[in-house]
Amino acid sequence: MTLIIAQTAIVDPRAELGDDVRIGHFCVIGPHVRIGAGTRLENHVTITGHTTIGRDNHFHPGCVIGGEPQDLGYRGSPTCVVIGDNNVFREHVTVHRGSEKEDGITSVGDRGYFMTNAHIAHDCRVGNRVVIANNSMLGGHVHVHDDAVISGGVGVHHFTSIGQFSFVAGLGRVITDVPPFMLCEGQPARPRTINMVALKRNNFSRVDIQLLNAAFRLLYREKVGVDKARAQLSATDGGLAPVLATLFEFLDQQGDGRHGRGRDRRKAA
């Protein structure tokens, strides 16, 4: 297939571009950039730094990918951004490369949808099929697990984890980890119910949904505590259903940290 580069675009000759990449007017592509086949850049997109982008991604006008981390301790080392396949980045999305405080990588998985003005900060790890709506911001070192949805105008505190199949409602202030399968809302955001829409859309069984409802009641209505809830929900042989095992593993990690953020446990030590 043909590589198409607009005459007004500036592409460093050292950049690696796959087949059928399309680069629109006034784009700027740096020397350490690799872009996979079929990826499309509309006008005024900037890709800089050590950035690797997979196949069939679509970047809308004004995106800036691979910029330096907004971290006062950054000293210019060749940290990077790694993006998977089939993602959509709408207008003015920003993704910053890693800092020197972890492994130096900011990563985005496959089939994500990132709406206008969304921001993914340094050292974030964003999974597959994640949706982040307009004007939402991930602080540094945030982990967003597969199939999570973050609605519009949400601010996520650094070192926070967003569990799989969770939903954060609009204008939320996320300062503690968001458990998987839960719908969180408020300032600060707290679990309000299970994320029934995602569970049904992704063909979770009726039994799994009933178990998650029971867990929600014990944990966030009756507030019996993680250990007691786990004991009550365990099968007669002492085991947990897989969906509950995922939930309680996340809650155990959250409890190991401080301020409700499991990834802060290295600081707690």
Chain-wise SSE layout:
Layout (H helix, E strand, L loop, with lengths): L3 E2 L4 E2 L4 E2 L4 E2 L4 E2 L3 E3 L4 E2 L4 E2 L2 E4 L4 E2 L4 E4 L12 E4 L4 E2 L4 E3 L8 E4 L4 E2 L4 E2 L4 E2 L4 E2 L4 E2 L4 E2 L4 E2 L4 E2 L4 E2 L4 E2 L4 E2 L7 E5 L2 E6 L1 H6 L4 H16 L4 H8 L8 H15 L8 H4 L1
Parallel strand pairs: 1-4, 2-5, 3-6, 4-7, 5-8, 6-9, 7-10, 8-11, 9-12, 10-13, 11-14, 12-15, 13-16, 14-17, 15-18, 16-19, 17-20, 18-21, 19-22, 20-23, 21-24, 22-25, 23-26, 25-27
Antiparallel strand pairs: 27-28
Describe the structure.
This protein is α/β, with parallel strands linked by helices and 269 residues long. It folds into two domains: 4-141, UDP N-Acetylglucosamine Acyltransferase, domain 1, CATH 2.160.10; 201-268, no CATH class. 18% of the residues lie in helices and 27% in strands. The chain contains five helices and 28 strands. The chain has helices at residues 196-201, 206-221, 226-233, 242-256, 265-268, and strands spanning 4-5, 10-11, 16-17, 22-23, 28-29, 33-35, 40-41, 46-47, 50-53, 58-59, 64-67, 80-83, 88-89, 94-96, 105-108, 113-114, 119-120, 125-126, 131-132, 137-138, 143-144, 149-150, 155-156, 161-162, 167-168, 173-174, 182-186, 189-194. A hairpin with a 2-residue loop joins strand 27 (182-186) and strand 28 (189-194). Helix 2 (206-221) runs antiparallel to helix 3 (226-233). The longest helix is centred in the last third of the chain and has 16 residues, at 206-221.
